[in-house]
Structure prediction request, 651 residues.
Amino acid sequence: MKYTRRTKRRGRRISPRRNIAIGKLELNPRGFGFVRPRDKRLPDIYIAEEDMGGAIHGDEVKIVISKNYQKNRLYGKVKKVLSRGITEIVGITRCRNGVPLLFPLDRRYNFILTLDDGEALKDGAVVVVAIKKYPQFPFPGEGKVLRVLGDEDDPQVRVLALMEEYKIKSNFPKDVLAEAEALKNTSPLRRFPGERKDFRNKFTLTIDPSDAKDFDDALSIEEIDEGWRLGVHIADVSEYVRPDSYIDMEAKERSFSVYLVDRVIPMLPPQLSSDLCSLIENEDRLCLTVEMVLDRRGDLLKYEILPSVIRVRKRLTYEEVQEVLDGKKTLGREADKVLSHLAILSNMLYKKRKKAGMIEFDFPETKVELDEKGTPIDIRAIERTFAHRIIEHIMILANSVIAEYIISNSALTIYRVHEKPDVEKVMQLKKTLSSIGVKTKKISPSNKAINRLLKGVEGLPCKRLVHTLVLRSLPRARYDPRCLGHFGLALKYYLHFTSPIRRYPDLVVHRIVHTLIQKNREAPGAFSVQELSNLSAYISAMEEKTEEAERISIKIKIAEYMESKVGEIFDGVISWVTPRGMFVELDNAAEGFVAVESLEPYDQFFYDEDGLCLRGRKGKVFRLGDVVRVRLTYVDKVSNLIYFQLFLGKE
Prediction:
């Protein structure tokens, strides 16, 4: 058993031929960081705060590596900054002794800048600053104010600042808008009839969230002798967005639509995303249709991929669909029949995938309700219903069919891949689960073992925590020109095809499908292996950045909401433990920190590294998954951090 009071670094240089590495520095708000080496054979390397050598978060650095043989861990020291990760930064101004200072909003940039032109700025201004001189620990750097975004108390400003931090553009360049406007003035049926199958007489519907702004997939289904004829109709964005056009270049740069807590920043200009390419009710729209015949067991018998034109009859929300399936509402005889058929088929598909080993996580979506000014007024968890499953599993089927179609034609494309978890990470997961009392007789990097583990915690208070820990142990899904399979879905062939309005890789796949349909490998949309490899790497990085921005936007509003709850008492679950304290998650997804120093009135606690817990001298232990009662003491809106104190009294 190990008790950790402070970090100790004892080590010696490893082999001279292997003690140099180059990689990207990623800092923790507490000052230390890790370098992700270019050499994928090396693990992430720990960098202490005093060993940063003037480097900041995001920099590419050259480091010298040492090894601590007691802990079997690599340590690094920055020898040279090769390139800077940022030249501008967003922060809040504070005046200290008459000197205007900038404190970055992102606490991973744990430094301050002096501002040489900040006389007119008041405390609490949120600004964008150009870095003139980079900081050198412990000395500050220097900056020049470029733009003032507003006051820190304005509920709109923090999201604007986030967009600046992540370089998320809300406006489109003039050339893009002009090109989109010209497309809007052309007939949507200019290639019809002759080259497109007319599905306008089929009863076709869309199922989306109630606040959806664009609709890129629609469904039709009918019962036939063999079983079902299912139509998955996907907006044919490639008909409008041609390779190397202004719209295409902008879409590639953005890669994804961004769904922030209070707004959507589309990948495509609104003339396309909300109009021409959106499958709007009672409007003729161009699609790529995957028409499939499935038997009564849900097995695919045959399929055809067709350029088409459709007209959506009903635009439905998940809530409406669920009410129909529960027998609480009717949408008319034809719509009810279509939904009944879709429900039967999707349930078959779901059971088949579960049997094949699909891993299913249970994470309710956090919904932050805002007023007209952008102030959060409520936070709630949205549980996934069977209506969500209808869309999810039918779209998975369409994506896998398209992947198999491209493979069978020996064509190149971008696949959605999810590789097997690393054995070492699975062993670490087992150790962590053991520390919270979840016993795993046998766990391996297989679908069967992971599903057995998830099933074993069903109904237990630690269920959500275990699902989180398992998810952390898996690699991220990403894009790759190689078909490496999808571990989580238990599929050999998989890609993204069904959301071309909001995902650039789907648009790439559409273009490739068109070249195969036309039997023209040299047509616009054909790619080389190197082009696809470079594009996949870029899109994967953009996806990670986009998802991080979306998560932080929710954390911003959660912090703002919880500020009004200071002094209140909550029940929560310990979600993580560190040497400095423990994180506690509430039912509404708000997560706060209990500092170990705040526990001193009850006992003297130390971090047990092996047990992943805080252990007191008198025997009290705080472990992952424990339910505790806490009082909200402080909210730091700058860093979106919430602070709790343990509450052992009575309300």
Q: What stands out?
A: The chain has twelve helices and 32 strands. The first strand starts at residue 3 and ends at 4.
